[in-house]
Amino acid sequence: MSSDETNVGVDRMADAEPVPGSAKPDPILVADGVRRSFGGLTAVDVGHLEVQRGTITALIGPNGAGKSTLFNLLTGFDRVDGGRWTFQGGAVNGKSGHRVARAGMVRTFQLTKALTRMTVLDNMLLGAPGQFGERMAGAFLRPVWQRQERENTRRAMELLERFKLVDKREDMAGSLSGGQRKLLEMARSLMTDPAMIMLDEPMAGVNPALVQSLLGHITSLRDEGKTVLFVEHDMDVIMGISDWIVVLAQGRVIAEGRPSDIRSNQQVIDAYLGAQEETAEVGGSDDD
Ligand SMILES: Nc1ncnc2c1ncn2[C@@H]1O[C@H](COP(=O)(O)OP(=O)(O)OP(=O)(O)O)[C@@H](O)[C@H]1O
User: Fold this and answer.
1) Which residues line ligand 1 (CB under 6 A)?
2) Nearest-atom index, ligand 1, CA of 78
3) Can you give the residue ranges of the ABC transporter domain (predicted)?
4) Does residue 92 sit in the same domain as residue 206?
5) How far apart, in whole angstroms, are the C-alpha atoms of residue 112 and residue 89?
6) What is the tens place of the pLDDT at every residue in 159-201?
7) pTM above 0.90, yes or no
8) Does the interface predicted TM-score (ipTM) exceed 0.95?
């Protein structure tokens, strides 16, 4: 799965302690005291979290644990009640999603209705950096933004090729299968050549034939030196692909470690079982 020669980030994890808040040898993201409440409910309350550069880190936890909220906070798509975090050594808390992306930390988004009515290529171009032409339409700058547009299109085509979507470039994004949409979401997030990519349930709604292809893309990104943080429910995927796993329950990090550490961690088992029991008590049967 991992290439030991190229995978410096993973190699450097050897000494990381499998405990909540553990220090990493070369963290790309460091968060402290990140909190978010909704009314009386504390959705996220993360004391200390470090994500190692160049690894695939999974963020897991039972339903309602706070995974999506933490994603939204870190990437500037929700407002924190408290806390700070740095990315590549620079503070990014309080920055808008756009500025966080420019700093090199991007997240994937599910295709909204509006985006499904655009072509695959136009979806890619929307993820492009700069959008210089739109902001500065002055005629004297035309050569500059035309050059940028050409460069964006070249990059989009290169990524569509890589993700095997190039033949679909003129199709409406809404006509893609579930798996192809996930590929497009991933490809689009790479338009800005980010250092870190955050994937929100990359396998949801993907048929088994495309799962392997998506997994291959995720490991390739890591092997090229990018950092991947992903939220996922599929345990086989999580255990098979992750270099490190962070477990959230009721907004807090209750465990961290390699898949082998997490698999046998009693607190993790209890958190999942507890959540299941709560669901059973209210009569639900959420298998999400
Ligand atoms: N905008 C909001 N308003 C009110 N409560 C919210 C809001 N967003 C999230 N919550 C609550 O915060 C808690 C954490 O939700 P979150 O969606 O982050 O969990 P999750 O771990 O991503 O769950 P799932 O695995 O089910 O997607 C839940 O109790 C949820 O109901």
Assistant:
1) 38, 41, 43, 61, 63-69
2) 1
3) 29-275
4) yes
5) 33
6) 999 999 999 999 999 999 988 999 999 999 999 999 999 998 8
7) no
8) yes
